[in-house]
Amino acid sequence: MKKITLFLIISLFIFSTSVLAITAEEIIQHRDDNEFIKTARIESTMIINNRGRKLEKSMVSLIEGDNGLTEFINPMDRGTKFLKRDDNLWMFFPDAEDVVKLSGHMLERGMMGSDFSYKDMMESEKYLELYNFELIGEEEYQGRECYKIEATKVEGAEVSYYKRISWIDKERFIGLKEELYAESGRLLKEIVVTRTEEIQGRWYPMESTMENKLRENTSTTFIINSIEFNPEIPEGTFSLESLQ
Amino acid sequence: MFLTKLALKNLTRHKKRTIITAFVISFGIFIFLVSDSLMVGMSDLTIDNSINLQTGHLQVMKEEYWENKDELPMNNLIEEDSNIINDIKNTVSSDNYTSRLLFGATINNGSEDYPINAIGIKPDDDQKVFDLKEYILEGEMFTGGQNVVIGKGLADLMGFNVGDYATLLFRTEEGTFNTIDAQLSGVIDAPHPEINEFHVYLPLQLAQDSLNIGNKVSKYLFRLGERDKSITAANNLNALFNDNGSNLHAYNWEQLSQELLAMIQQGNIENMIMLIIIIVLATVGVINTVILSALERLEEIGMMKALGLKVREIVYIFVIESTGIGIIGSFFGVLIGSIGVYFMSNYGLSVSSMTEGQSTFGIPIADKLYGGWEISTFIFIFFFGILVSILASILPAIWGAKKDPVKAIYHK
Amino acid sequence: MKFLLTLAGRNLFRNKMRTIVSLFAIAIAVMVVIFARGLIIGMLDSSYSLYIQYDSGHLKVIDETYDQKEKLLSLRHPVDGFEGRGVLPMVEKIESIEGINIVIPRLKFGAMASPGDEIIRMLGWGVDPDKELEFTDIKSNFVRGRMVEPNKREIVLGSGLLNKVNKSVGDTLTIVYNNSFDSFKGSTFEIVGEIDHYLPLINERLFYIPLDQAQRILIMENSATEILIKADSMNEADEIKPKIEQIINNNDKRGKYIVQTWDEANPMLKLFNVAEYIYNVIYILLIILAAVVVINTMVMIVKERTQEIGMMRALGLRSKEILTLFIIEGSFLGIVGSFFGAIFGGMLTKYLSVHGIDYTQAVEGMMEEFFMNPVLYPVYNLENVIFGFLLGSIVTALTCIIPARRAAKLEPHDALRNI
Questions:
Q1: Complex prediction ipTM
Q2: Do B34 and C285 make contact, defined as CB atoms within 8 angstroms?
Q3: C173 has which bridge partners?
């Protein structure tokens, strides 16, 4: 009897310690899982501030796994769409007859004048493959206890930011802040989540701002106005034809 | 023989006439040579600026790089290989070589940024090919470390002074952002707007390290003895590369600067037109002189005919005289012309007085225009002067020789 | 005095050959001097012509801030007319200034095409098609098709660029760009023409679309990024600049525009001042040569007439009178000769300024690839003609004096000795 109790106590102890010894990868994975949307319809707004000049864009996106179709609905950009299928990106403009494929250097441009480039967006889906993670501590941020994780790029990986430091809410596994660094160690961009919401059991970043640290008064704010999970997505939505 | 002697005696007898006619020829030649020299000097100045600051005489790079060179690509770079470099040096007979790494970047002064061309150089070697150092306005060229040298236009635009720090933002070969915080060690003011406004020079090592490309460079650049050697050198090199199956390719200075070449070509045509005008004017002068001379000597001609000389022989005398005058005129013309050109070649004309003190040029070196020197021009004009003299004299001689001797003598 | 005049007249008529030869020399000399000047100005103009046509015009009107941001092809500092009332009325108003030949608007912007996996960076110019053809030399460089027409979604590219995007005349091309609101946009145009030009800029980077189309797609109504101005010649730019500034100041109180002359707009052109100086030096040398030719002719004549002078002295004419005689003759020859020289020189320059000197033949044999249009246009200038005329007259008149003086001082018997 005593042996079993001891065994149970020891197992419990081991069990609980192993639960506590969560790895950096696991944290990131958990965060990504939270933020990953399998199927959804999202209405969002992007506010671009470039040295004091403000532009506002509104979009409606349909997402299904690795595919996504986004259409701009603000007056200036109405009719412009972009389609993402796996690793490919196409854009459609009302004034153009054919669809434009974005590749190479074009992906490095800021989306719609913002600081967040298409390349950054594509990269964000593959963090675990492209970076090596290390849990470097715990810190409080915005009143929340956070894991502080440092990600350094895997050698040879073709990513924009050499190093990323993330603050992830320990309880909710949602990223609250991220710093993006150049290879020289210079801080290039800072992303701060300013509003989160719990939707269907998951915590989701609803409003975040990315600040360009090299240019004065330059930032991009991304606001999710509404999310509808698992909506009806018609067949053939993610095809080039539907773009035109 | 008798006729020839007579002709030559005539020349010495009427010294004034000889001198006056020869003078037109001499002066015409002098003007011609000086003008030609100036024009050659002028185009040299333009070409040299480009060669000394931007292109060098010869560049070697991979063919694929050349095709995309405007994008300052990070692929198709060259691994510096001293064996190949030595081969090249031997083929072109020049030790003056340097390598450079070019990449696109943004320069940032803390609040604003601006797209520029960043060029990694080794200052000691670079000096053998380019004159950049001569145009440093403030500060000095770096020797290494985290330093940059930028053009004056850029410095003014961004508000940089020597000693300030600038940040360069760019992507490495893998597309990862990297920055260099460098101190401005010098400002260049060169007669080349692209350099002044878009170039940032930094130590090659620093560039290579920051881009993570080991010891690769974009191209090799060479300075040869003379720019005329550039084309043959490039051809020889390309033959060598072909034989070795290398994908390197050599480009001569004309290929490196097509716009310049277009300007030069046009300049040459214009120069020719000017020279033709000078020749026309001088020829008119000679013709006039000869005609007047013939008019003056109608009596003499009449006398000669009366003495039994045939028209043919009289014309012959005149032609010999003209040849003599032509030789004298050409000789002195080329002599004075040579002296004039010599002075201009060696001492130059000060350019700063021309541009009314505008200091875009910065330093005296670009300040002087040197006369050009080409022996073929001298030889050409020497013989041309004699030719004109002869041809100009034939018709008046024939006209004069055909006149009725009686009328001729009584001409007065 | 009347006696001397008559004598002078008779002298000139008596020795027709001499008179003709002198007139010929003087006329040619004056003609050459006038023509050379026109030629030199024409040559300088053409060496600058590239920049004048494609970069700075003789004068340029831009927004003050645009100057610095030009490389960035910023669309935020356009020329939108007087008090924002539209660029075309402003173009018209400036064109009406005396001395200005033609004014064009240009809307420059950056764009890209990506036909395959490559991205091709291009420079787009929204232009007034007819005026653009007048302002630059591209008309003769069309190898296929034609220039774009206003209000149509048409585009014209250089051969090199067409090659890069793998298209030809008749195809459509989709370009992507950022409009003036920094929105990433794309538009499709029909390729209606192909240009083959020696300038890499035109051949490989540039495309033309109608101004109204550029304004539409970039959302820059009634604007352009710059206005370029051509006068009769570059030399007049400094004179005309204040006139333009005045019109602008009278019509627009915003103070946002600056007027730049060609050398202010493009500092490298200062390098060409050296060329100007050289040509001026050569021009002076040419004048000296012309003078020498005239002097030479006159000297020979006077020398020839030493006897005649002796005769006149023997007949009782005083030195002063003989001198006056020669001056009258010289002046007459000078004025008549210069007059004809000026007329012919002026006519030649005027004619060639319109038709140009075509040296294509000369060039064909010489060079593999001749870049420039081998046609040179001298510049006709009335001041030049008058200058030539005066120069010829004065030089000739003066030239007679010295030898005449010397001859006039001889004792009659010395002078007569040559009989």
A1: 0.81
A2: yes
A3: C189
